[in-house]
Amino acid sequence: MRAFAGFAAATGALLIAGCAGIASAPSQEERRALAPTGKLRVALYTGAPASIVRGVTLNDSKGVGFDLGKELAQRIGVPFEPVVYPSPGAIMEGLKAVEWDITFFGPTPARTSVLDFTAPFLIIEHGYLVPSGSPISTIDDVDRPGTRVGAPQGGSVNAFLVRSLKNATVVASPSVPAGEELLKSGKVDAFAANKANLFELSDKLPGSRVLDGRIGVDEVAIALPKGREAGMGYLRRYVEAAKSEGLVKAAVQKSGLRGSADK
Q1: Which of 56, 59, 153, 231 minimizes the number of CB atoms within 10 Å of its CB?
Q2: pTM tops 0.85
Q3: How far apart are the two ends of the chain, measured CA to CA in Å?
Q4: Residues 6+ apart with CB under 8 A from 209
Q5: What is the pLDDT of residues 91-127, one digit of tens each?
Q6: Whether residue 116 is found in the same domain as residue 132
């Protein structure tokens, strides 16, 4: 999927309160590293409040990555271009084709081999969603023979489950929203993702439950492709400014993200 090309942040209304631009402007070298095409192409994946929940129009969209990416583009003085994918794995495929400049998600061994990360600014719990009437009541009940667990392909949760589950079977889902149909159709018995995404799915599945406890966490940071290290200093300063100015908290509240904590 590709989305929303050519949108200039400088002409849009601010989506996050308090964007006074306290962070200093980038140097020319930093701007070239962050936006080599003259615009900031921000990779996001749909259905995820920590990334983007797409609206009917661009201005109806929300999400922590969407809002913070838009504000970053304004601060460095370039147009904002969201590039929207169905899953984290698709974002990594887009990296190979040089389709984007920054993204918002957590470091994994595979990602850190090709991306540089700022310090994390948000923590989101991983967990399980089960449908109405499910006999699964606890996290420990999931890893049993015959249990099928869906998880977004290419994501950190999927990789974790493949390594850690001893008896249950992991079923790769093409996207987070696809988890709804997998659970409705009975193709999986539980769906795993970060809890922010699971609560979004649960709202669409009456009687479904996000199980108590957690199986891990996502540490959300800003990632920049290797080879553009000149931009990392500015990104690190921006993350600190976004936290101290309340931009992260405002983006979290606007997106309706649940199951998270400030880093």
Answers
A1: 56
A2: no
A3: 31
A4: 129, 130, 134, 202
A5: 999 999 999 999 999 898 889 999 999 999 999 999 9
A6: no
Domain membership flag for residue 4? no
The Cα–Cα gap between 221 and 255 comes to: 17
Q: Give domain status of residue 1, yes or no.
A: no
Strands 102-105 and 169-173, by their bridges, are unpaired
Please tell me the number of Cα atoms within 13 Å of 216 on its side-chain side.
Answer: 16
Segment 51-65 mean pLDDT:
89
Whether residue 163 is found in the same domain as residue 201: yes
Q: What is the dihedral of CA 188, 193, 195, 198, to 10 degrees?
A: -40
Please state, in angstroms and rounded to a whole number, the distance separating the CA atoms of residues 25 and 48: 30
Instruction: Please indicate, yes or no, if residue 3 is contained in any of the structural domains.
Output: no
Q: Do residues 23 and 92 both lie within one domain?
A: yes
Identify the pLDDT of residue 13: 34
Q: Tokens representing 21?
A: 């631009």
Q: How many domains does the chain have?
A: 2
The closest of 102, 9, 105 to 61, measured between CA atoms, is 9
Domain boundaries, position 156: 125-216
